[in-house]
Amino acid sequence: MSEKNLRVGLIGLGSMGRHHARVIRATPGMDLVAVADPAGDKFGVAGELPVLPDVAALIDAGLDAAMVAVPTIYHEDVALALAEAGVHTMVEKPIAATAASGRRVAEAFDKAGLVGAVGYVERCNPALRALRERLDAGELGQVYQVLTRRQGPFPARISDVGVVKDLATHDIDLTAWVAGAPYESVSAQVAYRSGRENEDMVVATGRLANGVIVSHTVNWLTPFKERVTIVTGEKGAFVADTLTGDLTFYANGTVESTWDQIANFRGVSEGDVIRYAIPKREPLALEQEHFRDAVRGDASGIVTMAEGVATLDVIDAVLTSAAENRTVTL
Q1: pTM
Q2: Where is the Gfo/Idh/MocA-like oxidoreductase N-terminal domain (predicted)?
Q3: Rounded to whole angstroms, how far apart are CA atoms 144 and 135?
Q4: So what's the pLDDT on residue 196?
Q5: Is 40 in a helix, a strand, or coil?
Q6: How far is CA 312 from the centre of its chain?
Q7: How far is CA 95 from CA 80, 104, 124, 211, 326, in A?
Q8: Domain carrying residue 163
């Protein structure tokens, strides 16, 4: 693909789509040339552009690339239409409503030789990117455990999926990415506490293929917002706060203790604490740049559709585990 600006279309002008519209317009090398949403443009993001009724009309505008931000249940149909039309596409997470559906989408883009990406924006969070770099550099030594907490009040934007597919999907994707290994097994419990048909709380534990143990607490019923990833290893623990973009390192203590009662305790002691000064960019802007670069030939920054399907396999395992009250091996 040459360096001329990419003609980009956006379908879905809801609570995520409005941000994508803003970011695409601000991304060098991208021109937002068409927008579509059968429900209209309630946030007024179309500007000069007509609001098209469907994906067929979007494709007719003549696109190099597209962003799909429709409700999850429509991801497969919209993405398959774009693949058939030869349009490079990024689909908001999760890739589709089920793993089987996601597989069909991934295969269609693979077969067509097109860029297919999934919008797991947490991977572009400055705290998690800095964490991954430091883990890759061996600053924690061997990684033992990854723990995530993603809690807050119910968001009115969600109607078609529960908390597992909407929120826990982020934690599963980022955990496998940060720890560098796929899930091997998972065990979960869910709860339905607010009268909706989908689950609104989940606690899941698991093991990755490299032996790292993981834990996820996710819900829509906590009256404060929390987005924390804690990675514990042989040299201490990293705490990434993706709400603030902060990364803190808690080192294991190296100071000898002469207090016998403490010295005899076989655990680790507290050492230095460092909060890193890291550059902070809007994650969505970086995600869109990675997609642009992938269309131009450098796909190193995107979350691939194959990765999106692998995450959905874990999501399905979480829901199966909760429904059948057993550990599921992947």
Answers
A1: 0.92
A2: 6-120
A3: 12
A4: 87
A5: coil
A6: 11
A7: 12, 10, 17, 27, 26
A8: 125-277+310-327
- Considering only CA atoms, give the Rg of the chain: 21
Q: How many domains does the chain have?
A: 2
Question: What pLDDT, on a 0 to 100 scale, did the predictor assign at position 1?
Answer: 46
pLDDT surpasses 70 at 151:
yes
Give the number of other CB atoms < 10 A from CB of residue 230: 17
Q: What is the pLDDT of residues 254-277, one digit of tens each?
A: 766 666 665 555 567 788 999 999
Assess if residue 65 is contained within a domain.
yes
- Same domain, residue pair 15 and 86: yes
Higher confidence at residue 198 or residue 1?
198
Question: Domain with 89 in it: what CATH number?
Answer: 3.40.50.720
pLDDT per position as a tens digit, 55-76: 999 999 999 999 999 999 999 9
Q: DSSP letter string over 66-81?
A: EEE-S-GGGHHHHHHH
User: Does the structure show a pLDDT above 70 at 6?
Assistant: yes
215 and 319 part of one domain? yes
Region 138-162: what's the mean pLDDT? 90
Each residue's pLDDT tens digit, 88-105: 999 999 999 999 999 999
Residues 108 and 200 occupy one common structural domain: no
87 and 25 fall within a common domain: yes
Whether residues 317 and 177 fall in one domain: yes
Asked if residues 257 and 271 have their Cβ atoms less than 8 Å apart, the reply is no
Give the separation between CA 301 and CA 258, rounded to whole angstroms: 49
User: Same structural domain for residues 130 and 262?
Assistant: yes
Which of 33-67 are b and which e, b meaning 16 or more Cβ less than 10 Å from the residue's Cβ?
bbbbbeeebeeebbeebebbeebeebbebebbbbb
